Amino acid sequence: MSPERPAPHEAPATPERPVHLRWRYLGVVALGGAVGTGARAALAAAFPPGAGISWTILAINVVGAFCLGLLLEALAHRGPDVGGRRTLRLLVGTGVLGGFTTYSTLADDTAQLLDAGRWGAGAGYALLSVGLGLVAVAAGVLVAGRFRPSTVGPGAVGPGAVDPSAVERAGDAS
């Protein structure tokens, strides 16, 4: 028999469907997106733009960028993107934070400022939003890195984890 074909008594392996084609995960993202969008809409209604500049949307995008950096860094150091970690990433990262942040509104607000001839305000708003977003995501990654699971010591978890007492016991056995 050729290695490409399964033996007659073996069923061919069916590949697992990609995550984006699984109804369970689509529902998780939609639920998170509804929560995030609702929170953004409530904040934007409570704090309307001042002088044509939506400081609320700027703050939402910066807070969302920080939270996304924090979440993804924390999850990355706790193991592979499977099971509960994948569900949490999709619910909170893609869903809640994807619905909460709104770079399309940033683009629209910037375009309206530019159309009104407020070139300085439009360019400044766009640059400030993107710059603060980059700083916020980096800060989120740094904060999460400070609290990552230990890879050295008793009860260490994660890739490359080392328990010094286990190393000592291994040395005693030789």
Structural class given helices, strands, pairing? mainly alpha
Helix content: 55-70%
Radius of gyration, taken over Cα atoms and rounded to an integer in Å: 24 Å
Q: What letter string, H or E per element, gives the SSE order?
A: HHHHHH
Topology, number of strands: 0
Low-pLDDT parts are: none
Overall form: elongated
The pLDDT mean sits at 84
The main sheet comes to: none
Distance from N terminus to C terminus (CA atoms, Å) equals 47 Å
Helical region count?
A: 6
Classify the beta-strand content into a percent band.
under 5%
Oligomer: single chain
Compile the SSE list and pairings:
Layout: H1 23-46, H2 55-76, H3 83-100, H4 103-115, H5 119-146, H6 164-173
Describe this structure in words.
This protein is an all-alpha fold and 174 residues long. Helix content is 66%, strand content 0%. The chain is built from six helices and no strands. It has helices at residues 23-46, 55-76, 83-100, 103-115, 119-146, 164-173. Helix 2 (55-76) packs antiparallel against helix 3 (83-100). It is elongated, with a radius of gyration of 24 Å.
